[in-house]
Amino acid sequence: MSSSSASAVIALALLAAIATDVLLVRSRFGKGLRAVADDPDAAALCGVPARRVVLQVFLLAGLLAGFAGLLDAPGRTSLSVDDGVVLGLAGIAAALLGGLGSPRGALLGGLAVGLLQAVVVTALDARFTDVVPLTLLVVLLALRPEGLRRRTTVLV
């Protein structure tokens, strides 16, 4: 992949991340999503259509996954059956690293996983790039099963 197309992919991914963040934080949909995630019954009592919000979340997830596939496709020369497994492990490791309840944290976790993969490729060999997310996942689950961002809930 040339540097100009890599820059375009980075710019489009950043634009998608910002647009998603604005949608989740500043829109009526985002407010409804947070309400349903916190307490679906209370959200329904406040007039939030929980079933529709869940369907919209699945739609948004599918759209973002498809967009990510479009951004990833130009850099691929071949496909393999286990490509999804490696990407899934990297995503889970990023989410655990950044915090499961935080989209911004998951984005930062993804950047950290990517940077760690780049360091491993530079320091060792490109064959080890798929080992990084799995190793990170095992280490995180062994050392901090509650996640890096431990949150305590106070019931009053």
Notes on the structure:
- The protein is mostly helical.
- It has 2 domains: 77 residues; 77 residues.
- Helices cover 73% and strands 0% of the residues.
- The chain contains 7 helices and no strands.
- The termini are far apart.
- The C terminus is likely disordered.
Based on the model shown, name its key terms.
single chain, 156 residues, mainly alpha, 7 helices, 73% helix, 0% strand, disordered C terminus
The overall pLDDT, averaged over residues, is 85
Gap between N and C termini: 55 Å
- The portion of residues forming beta strands comes to under 5%
- Class per helix and strand makeup: mainly alpha
Q: Percent of residues in helical segments? A: over 70%
Global Rg: 18 Å
Which H/E pattern describes the elements?
A: HHHHHHH
List how many beta strands DSSP finds: 0
Major sheet description: none
Q: Which geometry do the CA atoms define?
A: globular
What's the number of structural domains?
2
Q: Please report the number of helical segments.
A: 7
Low-confidence stretches: 152-156
